[in-house]
Structure formats: C-alpha cells, structure tokens
Design goal:
mainly alpha, 3 helices
Length: about 110
Amino acid sequence: MAGSVLVGAIFLLFGAVILNGFAAGVAAALYLRDPNQTRGSRIAWSVLISGIAFISLFTGVFLVDLADGPVVSMLALLVLGAMGTVVSLPGAIIMSRKIEAVSTVGRTFD
C-alpha cells in the first residue's frame, strides 16, 4: 500500500514538472509569435492551452467509461482541466517574466 502511494506521488510530481514545462514552452512560442502581446494575456493563453492539453490526455478514458453517466464524466474532465491550469500557472508566469528581461547575449562589444 505504501509503495503504491509513493509511486503515485512520484507520478504526480513528474506530471506537474512536465505540465509546467509545457506551459513555459507555450508562453515562449506565444512571445515569438507576437512580442507585443501583454504578459497577462500570454500567461492566460498558455495556461488555457496547457489545461486543454491536460484534458485531452484523459478524454478517451472518460468517453469509454460512460457507466456513471455523461454528466459525471464531463464534470470530472472539467475538474481535471481546472487542476491542469492551476498546476501549469507557475511555469507560464516564470517564462513570461524571463522572456521579457533584457538579455546581454550578443551585446558583448557594445
């Protein structure tokens, strides 16, 4: 029992790290697409996209198991999406702040 709890905790930890990395990558891609986009908008879009990606991982499971009813399945997907957006928030915030910072790369001889 304790071993399975430990494995589950490790799985959740790695999942949170991967989800934060995905949100940071989306924030960087949004900055490259439009550098004039505001920080808040970039964070909101990257968190939303990460939450949708997180939901898509579990959609098949809930579509197959409709024994509890479609309302329960959709509610569970919404809860998972909310969890995915909350977990991916730090990665999006950190990347959005870092990407706007003035870089000294390439300014060696200025």
